[in-house]
Amino acid sequence: GAVVSQHPSWVICKSGTSVKIECRSLDFQATTMFWYRQFPKQSLMLMATSNEGSKATYEQGVEKDKFLINHASLTLSTLTVTSAHPEDSSFYICSAEPTGTDYSYEQYFGPGTRLTVT
Amino acid sequence: LAKTTQPISMDSYEGQEVNITCSHNNIATNDYITWYQQFPSQGPRFIIQGYKTKVTNEVASLFIPADRKSSTLSLPRVSLSDTAVYYCLTPPADTGRRALTFGSGTRLQVQP
User: Which residue has the higher pLDDT, A117 or B1?
Assistant: First the structure.
């Protein structure tokens, strides 16, 4: 149980185009999902917190107009990288917190999406 | 900033027991301690979670002393496939936040 999927697993796009990444919780509902970015040999950096039915909360320094997040249902959150540039090339990872989680702060992570912008 | 401190790297050999200690001096009363494993180009995978004393599952054991200011992840008889980065996490200090903050983790290298 507690499986999170991401699609696509990898994508190559041209500079200036937009890319959408999907994150799904397959066997549980998630009111809250999270988006992280990871550069080579570095740790995960939180980009934003996505709440079902409301606007995402972005971390300081993350451009909300560039990284559009939509959390339309309890099992799906999407991240759209708009007008992508080579510096946006990274490994994007989502995680989902099962609805009703309290003190344990359970989170389950997706397999990640490798974005390469040429 | 992450509230945990752990060694940047560790080396071991196949078949040995590996213990990775994490310091979390400011852990709150209700906080759980969670450990994740991450392989290159994969998302983190949950290993174990505990609150106090000892927790054991099929993968690892987690030892938490009474003061809960530290915890030790124990991997019995490691193999080459245990080479990964291991992250120790505690909940955010701001109870209004739900996101976990990752520190640098411990890069474990297992050699034959």
Answer: A117
Classify A61 in phi/psi space as left (phi over 0), alpha (psi -120 to 50) or beta: left
Residue contact A109–B43, C-beta within 8 A: yes
Residue B6 near residue B13 (C-beta atoms within 8 A): no
Of A2, A6, A43, the CB nearest to B102: A43
pLDDT tens for A28-59 read 999 899 999 999 999 999 999 998 888 899 99
Residues 48-107 (B) with a CB less than 8 A from some CB of A: 49, 87, 91, 97-105
- At residue B106, does pLDDT exceed 60? yes
pLDDT by residue (tens digit) across A61-95? 999 999 999 998 999 999 999 999 999 999 999 99
How buried is A117 (Cβ within 10 angstroms: 0-12 exposed, 13-18 middle, 19+ buried)?
Answer: buried
Nearest C-alpha of chain B: how many angstroms from A44? 6
**Phi, psi (5° rounding) for residue A86?**
-55, -35
